[in-house]
Design a protein that fits this description.
By secondary structure, the protein is an alpha+beta fold. It contains 12 helices and 23 strands. Strand 2 and strand 3 form a beta hairpin. The longest helix is centred in the N-terminal third of the chain and has 20 residues. This is M18 family aminopeptidase.
C-alpha cells in the first residue's frame, strides 16, 4: 500500500483545532517566562509543586510507593520529574528534553569604554550564526551573589519600560571589505560587543566616565560591583516576545524553541499523567547545545543518582537493579529537528525531510556523514511506538537532517542509549533553528505534547 502523507490540518476536527490554538497560548507564556535554563528550571519546579510533586529530599523521609510524584532540582539549572510506577526494575518511560538554547554569554570582565560608548564583551554559546545577532534588541538575564551574600536574579529588557541592549553592525556605505568576506567571517566573535551605555552627564573626571557611570547605576540598582561579573552568570537573548506568525496565526516566532517546544510539551505531559503502570520520567537538562558537558548536563550522573536513591528507599537497592531499571527503559529523546525550508531546498532530501504542520517528527538516526555520532533506533522499538500513536491519534512524520554529507546534528539520545535503553529522537520540526528567533507550527507543538503524554502514560 502506498504511503500517503497528510498534514495535521487536513486530519483534525474543529475541537482539535481549538485545542491546538489554546495550547499555543500557554506555550507562549512559558517561552516568555523561561528564556534561560535557570528560569526554565524555576518554572518547571513551581508547576510540579502545584501538581503535587515533592522534592526528592522530602520523599526520602518516608517510604516511596507507587503513584508518588517526585522532583529533583539539580543546581537550579536542570530537573527531573518522576511518577513512580509498579516495578522500577522493569524499566522506566523517559522523555528527555533540554532547556538551554543558543545565546550570548558575558565574559568574566565584560565592561569597557571605547569611542563614546560603554560595551559588554560576550562569548557566544552553542551553534550560532554570528551575523544574525547585530542590530536586534537584546535583554540581559543574570544571576549573582553580591558581597553581602545576597542572591540577585536580574532581568533587564523584557518589560516595555526597560531599556534594551544592542550590537552594532557596519553601515552598507562602508562595508566593501565586509561584503567580500563569507558569512562566517563577516561578523567575528569579538565583534559581538553589546552597547550598554553612552552618557557622561553628572560624571566627574576624564578617565572612562561612561563606564564609571554604568558601574554607578549597577551598584545603586543591584549592588553589583565590577568584580561580581567574574562570579556571575549573565546571558543576552532577544528581547522580543513570542508572537503569532501569519494571517492564520498558525505559527509561533520566538527565541528558544530549540528546545523549549519539546520541554514544555514534556512538562505538560507529565503533569497530566496519573498512576502510570511504568514509572514516568521527564528530564530537563542543561548544556545540550555545547556537548552535554558539566554537572547539570545529561552526561553527569544526577539522574542515575536520583534513581538509585529512589530504588534504595523502596528497599530494592543493588547496583544491578539500577542497571536493570535503566537498561529496560524506553526513551524519547525530545529535541527539535530541521524542517524542509522552501527557500533552501537544496540542502534537504525532500522525500525524507520533516515538514512543518505534519506532526511530531521521528528521526530514526541523526549524526552526520556516515551516521557519525548518532543513536540509530531499533525497528522493534519504533514499531511499537507507531502502534501506540495510531491508537492515541497522534499525528507523526519521519524526519531526516538534511542531505547526507551536507551537515548534521545530534541530541542526548546516545547518552541515554549507553545504559542499554531503547531510544529514538522525537520532537518538533522547525525552521530557522539556532537563529535568535525561530519558527514552529502550532499543530506540531500540540502533537509533540500528545505524543509525550501517550508515551509516558501508556507505553509498555
Amino acid at each position: 500500500m502506498q504511503f500517503e502523507k497528510k498534514s495535521v490540518w487536513q486530519q483534525i476536527d474543529s475541537k482539535t483545532n481549538d485545542k491546538i490554538y489554546e495550547y499555543a497560548e500557554d506555550y507562549k507564556v512559558f517561552l516568555d517566562k523561561a528564556k534561560t535554563e535557570r528560569e526554565a528550571t524555576t518554572y518547571i519546579i513551581e508547576a510540579a509543586k502545584e501538581h503535587g510533586f515533592i522534592s526528592l529530599e522530602e520523599a526520602l523521609k518516608s517510604k516511596i510507593k507507587k503513584g508518588d510524584k517526585i522532583y529533583l532540582n539539580n543546581k537550579n539549572k536542570s530537573a527531573v520529574l518522576f511518577i513512580i510506577g509498579e516495578n522500577l526494575e522493569e524499566g522506566l518511560n523517559i522523555v528527555g528534553s533540554h532547556i538551554d538554547s543558543p545565546r550570548l554569554d558575558l565574559k568574566g570582565n565584560p565592561l569597557y569604554e571605547d569611542s563614546s560608548l560603554a560595551l559588554f564583551k560576550t562569548h557566544y554559546y552553542g551553534g550560532v550564526k554570528k551575523y544574525q545577532w547585530p542590530t536586534i534588541g537584546l535583554s540581559l538575564h543574570g544571576y549573582f551573589r553580591d558581597r553581602d551574600g545576597i542572591e540577585h536574579n536580574i532581568i533587564i529588557g523584557e518589560d516595555e519600560n526597560d531599556p534594551i541592549f544592542y550590537i552594532n553592525d557596519l553601515l552598507p556605505h562602508l562595508s566593501k571589505d565586509q561584503n567580500n568576506k563569507n558569512l562566517k567571517e563577516a561578523i567575528t566573535a569579538e565583534n559581538l560587543n553589546i552597547v550598554v551605555g553612552h552618557s557622561t552627564y553628572g560624571v566627574e573626571g576624564d578617565e572612562n566616565p561612561i563606564k564609571r557611570n554604568i558601574l554607578t547605576i549597577l551598584k545603586g540598582k543591584y549592588n553589583l560591583d565590577e568584580e561580581d561579573f567574574a562570579f556571575a552568570e549573565f546571558e543576552a537573548v532577544p528581547a522580543a516576545k513570542a508572537r503569532d506568525v501569519g494571517f492564520d496565526r498558525a505559527m509561533i516566532a520566538a527565541h528558544g524553541h530549540d528546545d523549549r517546544v519539546c520541554s514544555y510539551a514534556n512538562l505538560l505531559a507529565i503533569l497530566e499523567v496519573e498512576n502510570p503502570k511504568k514509572t514516568a520520567v521527564a528530564l530537563f537538562v542543561d548544556k545540550e547545545e555545547i556537548g552535554s558537558v558539566g554537572n547539570t548536563a545529561m552526561t553527569s550522573m544526577f539522574f542515575e543518582n536520583a534513581l538509585a536513591e529512589i530504588i534504595d528507599n523502596m528497599g530494592q537497592y543493588s547496583d544491578l537493579k539500577v542497571r536493570r531499571a535503566l537498561a529496560n527503559s524506553s526513551v524519547l529523546s525530545a529535541d527539535v529537528s530541521a524542517a524542509l525550508d522552501p527557500s533552501f531546498k537544496e540542502v534537504s532530501d525532500e522525500k525524507n525531510e520533516a515538514q512543518v504542520g505534519y506532526g511530531i517528527a521521528m528521526a530514526k538516526y541523526t549524526g552526520s556523514g556516515g551516521k557519525g555520532g548518532s543513536n540509530d533506533a531499533n525497528p522493534e522499538y519504533i514499531s511499537r511506538l507507531r502502534d501506540l500513536f495510531r491508537s492515541e491519534d497522534v499525528i507523526w512524520q519521519i524526519s531526516g537532517f538534511g542531505k547526507v554529507d551536507q551537515g548534521g546534528g545530534g541530541t542526548i539520545a546516545y547518552i541515554l542509549a549507553k545504559y542499554g535503553a531503547e531510544v529514538v529522537d522525537m520532537g518538533t520540526a522547525m525552521l530557522s533553528m539556532h537563529a535568535p528567533v525561530e519558527l514552529v507550527s502550532k499543530a506540531d507543538a500540540y502533537m509533540t505534547y500528545k505524543a509525550y503524554k501517550a508515551f509516558l502514560e501508556k507505553f509498555e
